[in-house]
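Section: Multi-chain targets

For targets with more than one molecule, the full set of components is provided together so that the structure can be written out for the assembly as a whole rather than chain by chain. Components appear in the order listed by the source. The example entry contains two components.
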Amino acid sequence: MTALLEIKNLSFGYEGSQSLLFEELDLTVTEGEFILVKGISGSGKSTLLRLICRLNQPTGGSIFFQGQDITTLTPARLRSRIGYVAQIPQMIDASVEENLLLPFSFAVNAEKPRPLKSKLVEMLQSFYLQDIRPDQSAMKLSTGQKQRLAIMRALLQDPLLLLLDEPTSALDQESAAMVFAIMERLNSREGKTLVTVTHSEYKPQTVHPLTLTLAHHKLHAAS
Amino acid sequence: MNRIIDISTGQLLLALLFIVAAQASSFIYHLGLNRDITVGTVRTFAQLFLMGYVLTFILKSSNPWLILTVFLVMVVSAVFIVKGRVKEKQIPYIIPTFLTMLITYFTTALFVSSLVIGITPWWEPRYFIPAGGMVIGNSMSALAISLERLFRELRQERELVEMKLSLGADYREASADIFRKAVSAGMIPSINAMMGVGLVFIPGMMSGQILAGADPLIAIRYQIVVMLMLVGSTAISSVIIMLIVRRRCFGSGDEVLLTPL
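Its structure, encoded as tokens over all components, is:
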């Protein structure tokens, strides 16, 4: 298997902070892999994902995506290949359809085919959002619905790697179960490479993710 | 044309009755403004008398370097006023703001004095200094509004901007709405002034010229030039400065550099 993502000697500390959040951290993610990153609050799990898609800059070390140093790629090009969904889903004040098609309004995705409305409706169903109409306002959805919509929107760009930051932290049990089911399906049936950060007690049903714990500035294989 | 009537010192002091009325209102209704009214009155007298003497000296000058030095001092003062109002510590915006203000305002004042009014030499202080002063004063307020808005909205909407970035937007696309809102917020007062001029208010410069005995039909021509000059210079300087400053709000990976205060 080829390495899709390679992190070498990564260190990061917030500006003005004396100590580093992590130091000489290494991680290799191969195509089709599902990695679950666990760790206590403040251990830097979310920051790790943000560094991969360059929403933060590392203090040291390198990150390679498909063998290329990510700093040599234009940020927009990198982010059109890596889907990142933040902990709190963000929507623009527009319809569900406009939110889903938002990535296609950016220059980097101009060449990509825009999904048809019928495909969106079909996808909404597979994301347990069958009651949602594409023309209704996205702002009025529940957090759980927004979270699934945000994952769906990231996937519409057909990214090679999907990063999910605590996708269930703000959700009730039922919504969280739906998100976990979607994650598992994406990996097992569609072969998506996933890195998910979570501190919840998630027990995978149909997949066997590699579980790592972020502690003491480094990633460790979970016992 | 009538000559302007001089105001004697006694008459000037008579106008202080207005201040007595203001002080009385504050005293009777406990507005707590007595001290500020006193300080404001003293400063009005002191600053304007000082300016009067400086202007008398400058207007008689035939040294272009002195005129340019005065212009430079005006721009530097404006930058400090903008800095005082914006209060941004994280993003270095002072140098680009100063340079853009200097170049844009100089070009505008030069264009108006040498081409529109057609005065020679172009630095004739009676035209160049007031034109420069009006341009600087007006654009300074617009810039302060736009910059403050840009920084505030980028901080408040950081998560939304990052969502767009993570979906493939570059920093321009991710901040397009904020940029547009910030620039137009600064521009609106100048545009509104064009809408209301002559109907709602008589602009200061025109009133001054009419009081000084100028033909109102000449005064309006000057005023039209001034209004157009203000809108144009404000738009150009705001857009250039905001483009530069917005770039500085993002890092080399197009990441948002502004952190919550």
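Residues 64-248 of chain B form one domain.
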